[in-house]
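To: structure subgroup
Subject: Chain for Friday's discussion

All,

I'm putting the inputs and outputs inline so they're searchable in the archive.
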Amino acid sequence: MMDVNEIRRYLPHRYPFLLVDRVVDIKLGESIVAYKNVTVNEPFFNGHFPDHPVMPGVLIIEAMAQAAGVLGFKTMDKTPEDGSIYYFVGADNTRFKRPVVPGDRVQLEAEIITERRGIWKFACKATVDGELACSATILCADRKL
């Protein structure tokens, strides 16, 4: 289990762009389960959409990539303080199945598919109450700052 203070050690993101609230399970070199609590106070809801708030799909993808980043950093036993950064470099086979709205708790899951020369590929999904909201294959690159 990782709380937000420990998560901040492994991700360079800060408010309002830190999109992982808690890690509930992590198997180094394998997988991670985390979550994001979505509230009506999120700054993006002011414009997306004022009368029908929906979390932007790109932010759902970013949340999955951040969870994958925590898994990658923990697996490598590195942090941004060590001079390493994890860039989001691609998403393939992305599908959205349901909207994410205020009050939802989005479960973020990532499994390592491969890692070659610092390029990591993850199978990711975001669910709400067991219902698939989004799935994607996400690529991240470990680089020096």
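Points worth raising on Friday:
The chain has two helices and six strands.
The chain has one domain: 4-144.

D.
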